Amino acid sequence: MPPISAWETRVPERLASGLRGIGHRVVDGIWRLGYASRFFLLTLLRSTTAFRRFGLTVREIYFTGVLSLIIIIVSGLFVGMVLGLQGYETLQKYGSSEAVGTLVALSLTRELGPVVAALLFASRAGSAMTAEIGLMKATEQISAMEMMAVDPIARVIGPRFWGGVISMPLLAAMFSAVGVFGGYLITVVVIGVDAGAFWSQMQSAVDFRQDIMNGVIKSVVFGIAVTAIALFEGYDAPPTAEGVSGATTRTVVTSSLAILGLDFVLTAFMFTGI
Amino acid sequence: MQRTILDLWVGIFVVAGIIALLVLALKVGNASATFNVGDTYQVFAEFDNIGGLKVRAPVKSAGVVVGRVDSIQFETQRYVARVGMKIDQRYKFPRDTSVSILTSGLLGEQYIGLEAGGDSAMLKDGDVAKITQSAVVLEKLIGQFLYNKAAEGGTK
């Protein structure tokens, strides 16, 4: 029997440390999830300030909504134009190029409007929110507020949350409307599809409750998800330059994944069994 | 930034968002047609086979949409499909109106076609239309055609 090497004697130890690593990660993840849920609940419970002092919320609507307008409108226009162009290319092979209006409107109101607007919102407004709150924490402004008996969740987090939740559906609606206009511009004005057929086929296919309202519901859900994630990441960020940059990255990645995952779940509930 | 300018921008933003929603509802969608369905009456019809008919499918007469399919149920007593239709109060149909399930185009969606009869009494809310024609099932049609062909071949 060969002598037991030093490496072999340490096998159980290594195994244990590996298991400890897995356990640590799981416990950490669950702890963080619980912390995030408590944070979200606390935000909701203490949001009376956001409505009593509505000026604070209006300020946040300006920063998250109004300043995101340019990117939303420009991307909406281009997404609509591309949809029109691609849809026309395919549909004209089957001699039904008028149906391009239906294609553009349904894709935008059901899916692309809420999803792409939310993705842009996450990277444009969500990241800014995280960085701002992370820096407030790093420069001890939040601790200073607590010192002055001002609740930072009511004063800083609540208005930002409601500002984001109010802005998101409006941005998504604008994205869809501008997108439909972009599709109209390309297919009717440039290519020359009949305008009457374009609008009438669209109107007969798009249902107000089934398509437009479900799109609005989706965008509200995405707004809640994105702002909640962004605010939590900012509030939870380690108060260093590295910590804030990491938190900003995590905001964009997590909220993008959350948007796509939630979109699948919502679509499965809304548009099956019609 | 000054408070008034900020308020102005947010006001513009919110109004633009609401206008976008209204444009979607009225220009893109059919909300204008959905909203004034307040005055309708319900008529039922029973079919042996409804094919691919769905709830909210249009009810047309002479090609004009006069109502929507409201409910589709399976009648366990006689094993037929019972289709409820909501028809606009403005349009009255005689009691002997024939109700058939038709298809728009070769592969289009299925809808209900109403063809008015000559009865002087009109259909009221909750009435059941007697004369119905089921959906055409393509497989049955082909089967029948093949059977007829085979029968022809036998006599020759």
Task: Characterise the protein shown here.
The complex is a heterodimer of chains A (274) and B (156). Chain A has 274 residues and is mainly α. Chain A contains 11 helices and no strands. In chain A, α4 (54-64) crosses α8 (152-191), α5 runs parallel beside α8 and α6 (100-138) packs antiparallel against α11. Chain B is of the alpha/beta class and 156 residues long. The termini of chain B are far apart. The longest helix of chain B is centred in the first third of the chain and has 26 residues, at 3-28. Chain B is built from 3 helices and 8 strands; from the N terminus they run ααββββββββα. Chain A binds chain B through residues 55, 58-59, 61-62, 65-66, 69, 105, 109, 166-167, 169-171, 173-174, 176-178, 180, 199, 202-204, 206-209, 211-212, 216, 274, and chain B through 1, 3, 6-7, 9-10, 12-14, 16-21, 23-25, 27-31, 33-34, 54, 56.
Question: How would you concisely characterize the structure shown here?
Answer:
Chain A has 274 residues and is mainly α. Helices cover 85% and strands 0% of the residues of chain A.
Q: Which characteristics define this entry?
A:
heterodimer; A: 274 residues; mainly alpha; 11 helices; globular; B: 156 residues; alpha/beta; 8-stranded mixed beta sheet; 3 helices; 8 strands; 32% strand; elongated
> Number of helix segments of chain A?
11
Main beta-sheet annotation of chain A: none
User: What's the mean pLDDT score of chain B?
Assistant: 83
Oligomer: heterodimer
Largest sheet of chain B: 8 strands, mixed
Tell how many strands the DSSP assignment of chain B holds.
8
**Gyration radius of chain A, rounded:** 24 Å
H-E order of chain A: HHHHHHHHHHH
Structural class of chain B: alpha/beta
Structural class of chain A: mainly alpha
* Rg over CA atoms of chain B: 24 Å
User: How many helical stretches of chain B?
Assistant: 3
